[in-house]
Specification:
Length: about 160
């Protein structure tokens, strides 16, 4: 029986032209090049969880590394609404988001997944020192973050 999550995964499968299998009626693991993506239906919260491992935490230089992660979270400008997090043992960084199932459609879900994967790839490169801060904003193929406050914003 098809539910909203199943419909979204079917739309993504059609876009990718490959069959994606849902496990336990709620989760799917799929690899996109170097990025492993978990998508899980959270029925109680009516959300779809997206999680991608980004990079291992370096053995040295952690203060600057952590600072860069936190700065990327500032008004979500560097993550487009997703969240950077560390695993419980502080061994790796992941990017995660849990959009409302009500806001997702068969038309917008494949684009959301693509944008999420692009952001995970950016942070993978950034964590590995292959990308400079703000590089995604200057890239021709990456849209500017939507969450940056406008320069002329009035404070009340």
């Amino acid at each position: 029986m098809e539910n909203a999550f199943t419909g979204l995964i079917q739309a993504l499968s059609a876009q990718l032209q490959t069959k994606l299998e849902i496990k336990d009626n709620s989760r799917i693991h799929v690899n996109f090049d170097d990025i492993a993506l978990l998508m899980e239906h959270l029925p109680d919260a009516e959300q779809v969880l997206l999680v991608a491992a980004v990079a291992e935490v370096p053995a040295t230089g952690r203060e600057g590394f952590y600072r860069a992660l936190l700065q990327g979270q500032y008004v979500f400008a560097g993550t487009r609404g997703a969240t950077l997090a560390l695993d419980d043992n502080e061994r790796f960084v992941c990017l995660q988001m849990a959009p409302s199932l009500r806001a997702l459609t068969k038309e917008n879900f494949p684009m959301l997944v693509e944008n999420f994967l692009n952001m995970a790839e950016y942070w993978r490169k950034r964590c590995l020192g292959e990308a400079e801060p703000g590089e995604e904003q200057g890239s021709a193929d990456a849209p500017a973050p939507e969450s940056v406050p406008e320069a002329g914003m009035l404070r009340i």
